[in-house]
Specification:
Blueprint: E1 3-6, H1 16-21, E2 29-34, H2 46-55, E3 60-65, H3 69-78, E4 83-87, H4 94-103, E5 107-112, E6 130-134, H5 150-162, E7 168-172, H6 180-186, E8 190-193, H7 195-198, H8 203-215
Parallel strand pairs: 1-8, 2-3, 3-4, 4-5, 5-6, 6-7, 7-8
Helix pairs in contact: 3-4, 6-8
This protein binds D-xylitol-5-phosphate and zinc ion.
Length: 216
């Protein structure tokens, strides 16, 4: 099943509740948490996640681009996130962290930056509900899709199939009308889209159009 998760990084931060409403029909709202250490940008933290979770019925998919996720990720579940993604490059004990996120009641997901090989984490996949393959360097919205990541998406899906895993495979970065079909064809089923949704006049229509393209 295809899922479309608009990224509020490209939304108007002064009107987050309205911006959540503007993408009605989306599966999840993708919330990019950046700490200005793991990535060179700073966005928001648990107070905003908590407020947003109260303001919308769309579940929150929190993507933590932060150092020390082992220390901070559980607080995002408590703030109302339905899914929490930590970065493999930052986690000290990814298995323990994934189990803790699940024990608290959220879906556990791990993200890989473009240069991080998926093969290195084959044994961890059964611990995860979702794997996120970054298709840009994390930190900013509106960057160009790295099509050299397509073989990695394919390899990730192959590893999941090999182990009989039903887990989700998310792509994030530069996903748009012109790149989503290639990602779907490679095996992704959860699509994050920031500028290609919020950069349009009708974000809800953009979500519908992306979904149709991914389902083709
Ligand atoms: C980038 C973030 C993305 C970002 C995607 O580091 O993780 O979620 O919002 O934005 P677009 O879709 O514009 O590339
Ligand atoms: Zn993201």
């Amino acid at each position: 099943m295809v899922q479309i998760n608009p990224s509020i990084l490209s939304a108007d931060f002064a009107r987050l509740a309205d911006e959540a409403e503007a993408v009605r029909g989306a599966d999840w709202l993708h919330v990019d948490v950046m700490d200005s250490h793991f990535v060179p940008n700073l966005t928001l933290g648990t107070p905003v996640v908590e407020a947003l979770s109260k303001a919308t019925s769309t579940p929150l998919d929190c993507h933590l681009m932060i150092d020390e996720p082992d220390r901070w990720a559980p607080q995002y579940v408590e703030a109302g996130a339905g899914s929490v993604t930590f970065h493999a490059e930052a986690a000290a004990a990814p298995v323990r962290l994934a189990r803790e996120i699940k024990a608290l009641g959220a879906r556990a997901s791990m993200a890989l930056k473009p240069a991080t090989p998926v093969e290195q984490y084959e044994d961890l996949l059964p611990e995860l509900d979702m794997l996120l393959i970054m298709t840009v360097e994390p930190g900013f919205g509106g960057q160009a899709f790295l099509d050299i990541m397509l073989p990695k998406i394919r390899r990730a899906r192959r590893l999941m199939d090999k182990h009989g895993l039903q887990m989700w495979l998310q792509v994030d970065g530069g996903v748009s009308a012109s790149t989503i079909e290639q990602c779907a064809e490679a095996g992704a089923d959860v699509f994050v889209a920031g500028s290609s949704v919020y950069g349009t006049d009708d974000p809800a229509a953009a979500v519908r159009a992306l979904r149709e393209q991914a389902e083709e």
